[in-house]
Design brief:
Distance between the termini: 14 Å
Structural class: mainly alpha
Shape: globular
Oligomer: single chain
Number of helices: 16
Order of helices and strands: EEEEHHHHHEEHHHHHHHHHHH
Strand order of the largest sheet: 1-2
């Protein structure tokens, strides 16, 4: 896959897989060259300085919430919304640790500093959209659990040996919710919040980092911690967070899964490694107080994560198109619902050329509306040509083709 950006920046940057005994965190600065460690391992005075527990918690909350979308016997609109907007101490989850947490998913959805601090109207709209997915699931899909889905009627539909539960328009709401969160939570917090200079360099963060002034009773500076929190939204539930590529794609059902899926395609086989290497080198650059290198790595991560979202959007649109052409509606609705969620997530991508999303709100709205407007019954009526048009419009913003994104090998 082509690397489009940052060649000039890397003239002065040394990539090396080695471990350093530097006291401030397994990274050194030698003549302005930053050396990255072999793994995402950083210490200060012999103590681990990497922390992203809040991100791990939110990923786990999101996973349990999405699973509860199919708890027909016990879940309600109120219980699902309570999981989404969890309040510390409420018994919303199966896990006592999650119940005891003061974290929740809703408050961090569409909540980045760069995109939404001054755009609270859209932030509220997005949060309400996720609330509406819950309402639709419980008011339309739940009552029709045992009804056979047909145009204009919600219910169940076969997808091979699996059963899908869809709205009257063929939408699988749990897929819209899950794939939408990949953008609205994971990517937005990573690309547009924690990796942004507004957060990394906020207040005294840079001077404190320059002087190794850590947070109270912690082994990390605030800047180090913000970078780690971005890392956590991708690798926070990894079996080995310091060396996560061994299980990439297996550790959660959100961004980790789909970075792994895209890396399994020969056209994009290096993408997971490129993201991981950029995270390591960027963190090492913070330890070395080299902010030019740090920002170059943030830009790589933004580009590559944006590509992952766009690639999977096209992948599911094209697979759904094939299933529609074969009149395999169960498979089509599953793929197209995943595609709809990834298309929605395009809003949270980041273009390094102008520091805005690759896709405006109106562009994303046009895509999602087009998927449902070829007839009165939504996905039951979608035209394969519509899916091609959307796919081409997405690919046009990047260096890959629809054909490359549509394959899985």
């Amino acid at each position: 896959m082509k690397n489009l950006l940052f060649a000039a920046t890397f003239i002065s940057v040394l990539f090396a897989s080695c471990s350093s005994d530097d006291d401030n965190g397994t990274a050194m600065e030698i003549d302005n060259e930053v050396v990255a460690p072999a793994t995402y391992t950083f210490t200060r005075n012999g103590e681990n300085s990497v922390s992203f527990s809040g991100q791990t918690t939110r990923i786990m909350m999101a996973g349990e919430l999405v699973s509860a979308f199919k708890n027909f016997d016990t879940a309600t609109e109120n219980s699902l919304k309570a999981m989404f907007a969890h309040v510390e101490g409420a018994a919303d989850f199966d896990s006592d640790a999650l119940n005891a947490s003061d974290k929740n998913v809703r408050s961090k959805t569409a909540a980045s500093t760069d995109y939404f601090a001054a755009n609270t109207t859209e932030s509220t709209l997005i949060k309400n959209t996720f609330d509406s997915y819950i309402t639709t699931q419980t008011s339309e899909v739940f009552p029709n659990e045992n009804t056979v889905a047909e145009p204009g009627t919600a219910g169940q539909i076969a997808d091979g040996s699996s059963v899908r539960y869809v709205t009257s328009q063929g939408l699988e709401m749990n897929q819209l919710f899950a794939k939408g969160l990949i953008g609205a939570l994971m990517a937005d917090q990573m690309l547009n919040n924690y990796l942004g200079t507004a957060v990394l360099d906020e207040a005294d963060n840079r001077s404190n980092n320059d002087n190794d002034i850590t947070e109270t009773d912690k082994a990390y500076t605030t800047m180090e911690h913000k970078w780690d929190e971005a890392y956590g939204y991708l690798f926070g539930t990894s079996a080995d967070p310091a060396n996560p590529l061994a299980t990439i794609g297996e550790d959660d059902s959100f961004l980790n899964k789909y970075v792994g899926s895209v890396a399994g395609d020969s056209d994009f086989s290096e993408i997971a490694t490129e993201i991981f290497d950029a995270f390591k080198l960027g963190r090492a650059a913070i330890v070395a107080k080299n902010y030019e290198v740090r920002d170059a790595q943030a830009a790589i991560i933004r580009q590559k994560i944006s590509e992952v979202i766009a690639i999977r959007a096209i992948y599911y649109l094209q697979n759904g198109k094939t299933a529609i052409e074969n009149e395999d509606f169960g498979a089509a609705f599953h793929d197209l619902s995943e595609g709809y969620g990834f298309v929605y997530s395009l809003r949270f991508t980041r273009n390094n050329q102008d520091d805005n999303s690759f896709f405006t709100r109106s562009e994303v709205d046009e895509f999602t509306e087009a998927m449902l407007n070829d007839g009165e019954h939504g996905l039951w009526d979608v035209n394969p040509a519509t899916l091609d048009t959307i796919s081409e419009a997405i690919a046009a913003k990047f260096s890959f083709t629809v054909a490359q994104a549509a394959t899985a090998d």
